[in-house]
Design goal:
Strands 7, 8, 9, 10, 11 and 12 form a six-stranded mixed β-sheet that branches. A five-stranded mixed β-sheet has the order 4-3-5-13-6, with helices on both faces. A two-stranded antiparallel sheet has the order 1-2. By secondary structure, it is an alpha/beta fold. The protein is globular. The protein starts with a helix and ends with a helix. Strand 3, helix 5 and strand 4 form a beta-alpha-beta unit. Helix content is about 50%, strand content about 20%.
């Protein structure tokens, strides 16, 4: 079977119509219809019922759905394995949201380099919805995101719990009524809780879709907004930012997403690394709150994210140190985690 038939079938199921599937796949509706006809001829059963409101699965379509996901995922894994570089035993494709790469996923890449150096990594940055779709179709083995929505066939595992706190450059600010308040789009859950906590809140003067951008903006120009607690610690330590007293805090957890129906020993190694790095990241966070002023004094603008600069390497090194301390001592084998500075120098 042409793998594009299964891919087209899954896209119609996800979007609910031939028209939207054609737009997603960047092909004509005629092409989509022709692929479905070919699929139905091969299965000798209709898979969709079409009506004015869209397309729904027939009983045969429901049966084929789980096989279609497996077909696409197996094909993508086979494609990855065939393209494995010389000297490596396997390929692992991982995606993450932008603000998660520094320092969490940077530390994880270092962990993988030292603990599974025979695994080739393919990494990418994306939005949560697109990353989940790629995990579902097998293009990615693993994704690390905030607030994922339910997706059939995917398993969700919480790695660590983040908090969003209200901070400001002006200590006299008491809420979101500040005219320089920057509203950051942290997703649907945040919007709902923000609305319940601040029912009188009107349209902000600045709406930002990316947390690091909003944080860099208020650090340089002044203002207030909700940002990740770990991201603002250096600026709190330096005195550039202040936590708004008595303001509500919101949970913003980090999750690993992967296919629940397939076994993959390389992916299991990657998950173990993510769990260890996330645990270490949580352990070093209080230390950064105390000692962060030493770095933040010389870093008045945002360096922690999104670029992988000195601030990211500093925190990744702390994570690596915690992991080294936890690892059992082996005289004949080096630690599973080395200093990221030595890695960055290569």
């Amino acid at each position: 079977m042409d793998i594009e038939l299964a891919r087209t079938f899954l896209t119609i199921v996800e979007t609910g119509s031939f028209v939207r599937a054609a737009e997603r796949l960047n092909v004509t509706q005629t092409t989509v219809s022709a692929r479905v006809r070919s699929l139905e001829e091969q299965l000798r059963r209709p898979v969709f019922m079409r009506n004015k409101s869209g397309s729904t699965l027939t009983a045969a379509g429901e049966q084929f759905l789980r096989f279609a996901r497996t077909l696409v995922q197996v094909w993508e894994r086979a494609r990855h394995q065939v393209s494995v570089p010389p000297g490596r035993r396997s390929m692992l494709a991982v995606g993450g949201e932008l603000s998660l790469w520094s320092p969490l996923l940077l530390a994880w890449m270092i962990w993988m380099r030292q603990s599974a150096s025979d695994v080739a990594l393919q990494t990418q940055v994306g939005l949560s919805e697109g990353l989940l779709r790629q995990v579902a179709d097998g293009t990615l083995d693993l994704a690390v995101v905030y607030a994922p929505r339910h997706w059939p066939g995917l398993k969700v595992e919480m790695l660590m719990e983040e908090k969003l706190v209200l901070v400001t450059t002006d200590p006299t600010v008491s809420g979101v009524s500040d005219p320089d308040y920057v509203y950051v789009d942290w997703g649907h859950d945040f919007a709902a809780h923000h609305g319940m906590s601040f029912p009188q809140f009107s349209n902000p003067g600045l709406f930002v879709g990316l947390g690091p951008l909003g944080l860099d903006y208020i650090v340089q120009l002044g203002g207030s907004g909700y940002f990740r607690q770990r991201a603002v610690r250096p600026h709190l330590a330096s005195g550039r930012l202040h936590v708004v007293p008595h303001a509500p805090e919101f949970t913003h957890s980090v999750y690993a997403i992967y296919s629940e129906g397939s076994e993959n020993d390389v992916r299991d190694i990657a998950l173990r690394g993510l769990r260890e790095v996330a645990k270490a990241e949580g352990s070093v966070a209080p230390d950064r709150a105390i000692a962060g002023s030493l770095e933040a004094i010389t870093a008045p603008s945002l360096r922690q994210e999104p670029d992988l600069g000195e601030e990211a390497l500093d925190q990744a090194e702390r994570v690596a140190t915690v992991l080294r301390d936890r690892a059992p001592t082996r005289a004949s084998k080096p630690s599973a985690v080395e200093s990221p500075r030595s890695e960055a120098a290569r």
